[in-house]
Amino acid sequence: MTTWKSIKGYETLYEVSTDGQIRSCDRTIVCKDGKVKHLKGRILKPGFGKYGRNQYTLTKNGNKISVRGYRIVAETFIPNPLNLPEINHKNGNNLDDRVENLEWVSSEKNIQHGLENELFNTYWKRFKKKENRRKKIMMKENSKNVLNYLKAHNGEDLTAADVADALGLAKRSVDGIFTAMQKKGLGVRTPAEIELDDGSHKAIKLLSLTDAGMSFDPDADAE
């Protein structure tokens, strides 16, 4: 059986149902010319949001706002005692806003559900694109920091681990950055040995910049 409830903040104006529909309520309005009109409530037709979900436009006091159907359903009918931030469509259909198809989840669980069920929708593709862009920007910044650190400590015996510790980076990241530098002729790795506390020796590789690396300007290269 379908249940209807008023939408919070829009009482007497709009209602939402357990099967995912939104309707306007019967109401009386006064027009600018003073005439009184009695409007019959109706089921609203959803638009198709940019994230592939049902989207509605609600009006109050002349102000319009766009809302997502699934969030209105969840906030109205599904308790959220843990204050979880996101809502998952259990069957993977983002247009199915029935209350039994929705659940409050963490961001991690929402992403995991999408991965496990191969729900690579438009939103997920945009998220991955944004994340890849963020990683690319971070890699450029880390590369610049590694280069500048090696310039400032030119002549010192430094390994990738030394540079990583100094800059707060993972050793693997520094290794990858320096490998890219080597391919551009900006740096070289020199084999060396160190003596450990027990008297044994360990092979290491020291990082140093070439003349090209010392004169290289990463900011000019970015332009």
Give keywords.
alpha+beta, Homing Intron 3 (I-Ppo) Encoded Endonuclease, Chain A, 2 domains, 7 helices, 3-stranded antiparallel sheet, elongated, Arc Repressor Mutant, subunit A, 223 residues, 12 strands
Describe this structure in words.
The chain is an alpha+beta fold. It has seven helices and twelve strands. The chain has two domains: 4-119, Homing Intron 3 (I-Ppo) Encoded Endonuclease, Chain A (Alpha-Beta Complex); 132-222, Winged helix-like DNA-binding domain superfamily/Winged helix DNA-binding domain (Arc Repressor Mutant, subunit A). It has helices at residues 69-77, 107-116, 122-152, 160-167, 171-183, 211-215, 218-222; strands at residues 4-6, 14-17, 22-24, 27-30, 36-39, 47-48, 54-60, 63-68, 86-89, 102-105, 187-195, 201-209. The strands form five sheets. Strands 1-2-3 form a three-stranded antiparallel beta sheet, with helices on one face. It has a three-stranded antiparallel beta sheet with strand order 6-7-8. The chain has a two-stranded antiparallel ribbon with strand order 4-5. Strand 7 and strand 8 form a beta hairpin. Helix 4 (160-167) packs across helix 5 (171-183). The longest helix has 31 residues, at 122-152. The chain starts with a strand and ends with a helix.
CATH class of the largest domain: Alpha Beta
User: From the coordinates shown, what is the CATH architecture of the largest domain?
Assistant: Alpha-Beta Complex
State the shape: elongated
Strand content: 25-35%
Beginning-to-end CA distance, first to last residue: 63 Å
How many separate helices?
7
CATH topology of the largest domain: Homing Intron 3 (I-Ppo) Encoded Endonuclease, Chain A
As laid out across the biggest beta sheet, the strand order is: 1-2-3
Biggest sheet statistics: 3 strands, antiparallel
Tell me the Rg in angstroms.
Answer: 30 Å
Helicity range of the residues? Answer: 25-40%
Mean pLDDT: 89
* Backbone structural class: alpha+beta
Total count of strands:
12
Low-confidence stretches: none
Tally of distinct domains: 2
Elements, N to C (H/E) = EEEEEEEEHEEHHHHEEHH
